[in-house]
Design goal:
This protein is mainly α. It contains seven helices and two strands. It has a two-stranded antiparallel ribbon with strand order 1-2. Helix 2 packs parallel to helix 4.
């Protein structure tokens, strides 16, 4: 995890070599927000927080091992996303819009970061980076989960789209679409495991909620 964060930071600096585009305030703000999201996730993943019950759980009673492919795809796309939007902005290649697009991207980036981390804290000990069923696992159907079944993945997508817009990068939008395809494959695996584990309870939950985008999908 720490190695991947360091690599992402390095390729971001490479793609956004001074003086542009990090001298543009919106992308610089997006970069700062990105660092905040990374640090928060790192704390949540590596260290228990007293009173908050935030942990990353190791493989549970039942774990789908094929998630390694998805994890690799996320890593490759994440590194590409750290480099290409900043690089294309610096060279004015496949860029679009102006400062309003940048600021809209910053707002989406912040919103996505909040939505991405919210379920981590809500799930507590049940949160895992793997597709796994934990000991004593129960379905979380309240709060944001009462509307959509995978809010963290929605947050990831909004986050990546916001990052692309902060740099006005067409390449970033393409990466976001590719990221969405990987997310959908991961969701398929998760819902298959949850359906096998919880049966009719999960079927009823699926019937009254949206998968990823409220009132759309």
């Amino acid at each position: 995890m720490k190695g991947l964060i360091a690599a992402a930071a390095a390729v971001l600096l490479l793609g956004a070599a001074p003086p542009d585009p990090l001298t543009h305030f919106p992308p610089a703000l997006a970069k700062t927000l990105s660092n905040g999201v990374i640090v928060t996730a790192q704390v949540s993943n590596d260290a228990p927080i007293a009173g908050a019950h935030v942990y990353v759980v190791l493989p549970g009673d039942r774990t789908i091992r094929t998630t390694t492919d998805a994890t690799g795809a996320f890593a490759v796309l994440g590194l590409a996303d750290a480099y290409l939007p900043a690089y294309t902005d610096r060279h004015e290649f496949l860029t679009f819009g102006g400062e309003r697009v940048r600021w809209f991207g910053v707002a989406l980036f912040a919103l996505g970061g909040i939505l991405r981390l919210w379920p981590v804290f809500a799930l507590g000990r049940r949160f895992s980076g793997l597709v796994a069923i934990q000991p004593g696992h129960r379905l979380m159907t309240g709060g944001v989960f009462a509307v959509i079944r995978h809010p963290s993945y929605l947050g990831l997508f909004v986050n990546v789209i916001g990052w692309a817009l902060a740099f006005r990068a067409g390449a970033g939008v393409i990466i976001a679409v590719l990221m969405l395809l990987v997310v959908l494959a991961r969701i398929d695996a998760e819902e298959r495991l949850l359906g096998e584990t919880f049966g009719a309870e999960y079927d009823a939950y699926r019937a009254r909620t949206w998968r990823l985008f409220p009132h759309v999908y």
